[in-house]
Amino acid sequence: MNSPFRRSVAGHRDSIRELVDAALLGLGSETVRLREARGRRLAATLGAPRSLPPWDNSQMDGYAVHTGDLGNGRLRVVAPIAAGEAAPALERGNAAPIMTGAPIPAGANTVIPIEAAVPDRFPDAAQLAAGFHVSLPATAEDGAYIRVEGSDIAAGDTVLEAGTRLGPTTLGILAGLGIGEVAVTRRPSVLLLSTGDELVAPGGELGPGQIHDANTTLLAAALDSAGCTVTTVGVLDDSPSLFTDSLRTALASGERGYHLVISSGGISKGAFDVVKEVLATNGIEFGSVAMQPGGPQGCGTLALPGCDPVAFIAFPGNPVSAFVSFEIFLRPALAEHLRLPARPLLEARLTEDMGSMPGKLQVRRGTYRDGIFTPLGGASSHLLAALAASNAFILIDEDTTELAAGQTVQTLVIGDGS
Ligand SMILES: Nc1nc2c(c(=O)[nH]1)N[C@H]1C(S)=C(S)[C@@H](COP(=O)(O)OP(=O)(O)OC[C@H]3O[C@@H](n4cnc5c(N)ncnc54)[C@H](O)[C@@H]3O)O[C@H]1N2
Ligand code: MOO
C-alpha cells in the first residue's frame, strides 16, 4: 500500500492524464452510418467528394431563357424541365418552363419567375402541342435565379474538421454530399459505480438516514456527453468483501473489458471508506489534492486478483466534488482522445466580495453572462441546486483569500456540463 499523496491540482491532472492516455492508447475510430452518428466526433477532416449544387439549377419555378432573347417580343415555349431530369439544350429564341431545382439547360443564362410571365401559368400539354408563346420582361440579369454549381461547397473543399461533433446541420451537409457513413472517434467504455450504504437509487423509497444517489446519474451524463459509453452498476455495498465481489462481477460484465472505472465516495477519512480500504492494497493511490471541492482523490491501475488490470479513478462522494473533479481532472484528459473542445477560460468581473480558503485552488460555482460572474451558493460541496443553476466555475488560486466585488476572476465556462 502506498502512503497517501499530497498533490497540487496540476500534479493530479498530470497523473490522471497519464492514466487516461495509457488506457485509451489506440482507441481509434469506427465507421458508422449517418443515422447513428449524431453526437459522435469526426475522426478525420472530410473533403467534399462532389460539388453542391452538383450543377447549375433553378432557384424558382419559371422560364429558362437567354437574356439576349428578351425584349424581342414573345418567345416560343418548349418542353418543360422538371427537377430530376436531364435538360436538353435550349435553342435561342425559345423559353423552357423550368421547376425549382431542375438543371439549367445549356444555352440559358437566366430564369424569369413564372409570376413575371404573361400568362403567369405554365401551359398544359395540349397548349404546348398547339404552339404556345409567352411574354417575358424586356430585361433580366445574367445569372438571376440560377444556383451555380459549387456555390454551396466545391468538390475537394473541407466540409468538416476532425473533431466536429455531429448534429442535425453537420449531418445534413454530409447527407447532401452523398456521404453515407463516417469515421468517428470510438467511445471509451466506462464502468461507473457509487458507494455508500446511505444511498438509494432515484425513484426508490428512503429509509432513515438515507439519501438518493445523485452521482451515478450526474457522472453518467457527464461521461456520456464527453463521448464515453457508460455502464452503471449503481451503489456497491460498503462491506469490503461484498464490495470486492460486486466489483469483480461488474468488471467481468464488460464484454471486451472496460477502458476506465470511475467511482464516487468512500475515499476520505471515514470509518467505512470502503473504496479506499479495498483498493489501496490493489494498486490505487489515495491522497489529497490542493483543491476545494474535490480534495480527496484516488487513481491508479487496479490490479484485483483474477481481473484484468484496469485504469481506476476514485472521486469524492459529495456531488459537487465529484462533478468538479470530473471537469478539472478527467474531462481535460479525455478531451485529447475524444476531440472535445476545451472549456473556454474567460476573464469576468465578480459581482460580490468573496473569501477563499488559503492553500487550495477554490472552485466556486455561479453564472457567467456578458463578462460578469455571479456566485451561486457557498463553497460547500453538497449544494447541488446551486450547481444546477450555474454555468461556470471561477478558479481562485491558493494564495488568494479575499476577492472584492468588481475584481477580475478567471472563469471556466461549462454551460450545462454537456
Ligand atoms: N475528517 C475528515 N472528514 C472529511 C474530509 C477530511 O479531510 N477529513 N474530507 C471531506 C471532503 S472535502 C469530502 S469531499 C468528503 C469526501 O468523502 P468520501 O469521498 O469518502 O465520500 P463519502 O463519505 O462517501 O460521502 C461524502 C458525502 O457525499 C454524499 N454522497 C456520497 N455519494 C453520493 C452519491 N452517489 N449521491 C449523493 N450524495 C452522495 C454522502 O452521503 C456524504 O454526505 O469527505 C469529507 N469528510
Ligand atoms: O474536497 Mo470536499 O470536495 O470539499 O467536499
From TrEMBL:
Keywords linked to the UniProt accession: Magnesium, Metal-binding, Molybdenum, Molybdenum cofactor biosynthesis, Transferase
Enzyme Commission number(s) from the entry: 2.10.1.1
SUPFAM superfamilies: MoeA C-terminal domain-like, MoeA N-terminal region -like, Molybdenum cofactor biosynthesis proteins
Keyword flag Magnesium: yes
Reaction(s) catalysed (UniProt annotation): adenylyl-molybdopterin + molybdate = Mo-molybdopterin + AMP + H(+)
Any one GO molecular function term: molybdopterin molybdotransferase activity
Pathway named in the protein's UniProt entry: Cofactor biosynthesis; molybdopterin biosynthesis
Positions of the MoaB/Mog domain: 191-336
Cofactor list: Mg(2+)
InterPro entries xref list: MoaB/Mog-like_dom_sf, MoaB/Mog_dom, MoeA-like, MoeA_C_domain_IV, MoeA_C_domain_IV_sf, MoeA_linker/N, MoeA_linker/N_sf
Family in the record: Belongs to the MoeA family.
Chain's role: Catalyzes the insertion of molybdate into adenylated molybdopterin with the concomitant release of AMP.
Protein name: Molybdopterin molybdenumtransferase
Organism: Paeniglutamicibacter kerguelensis
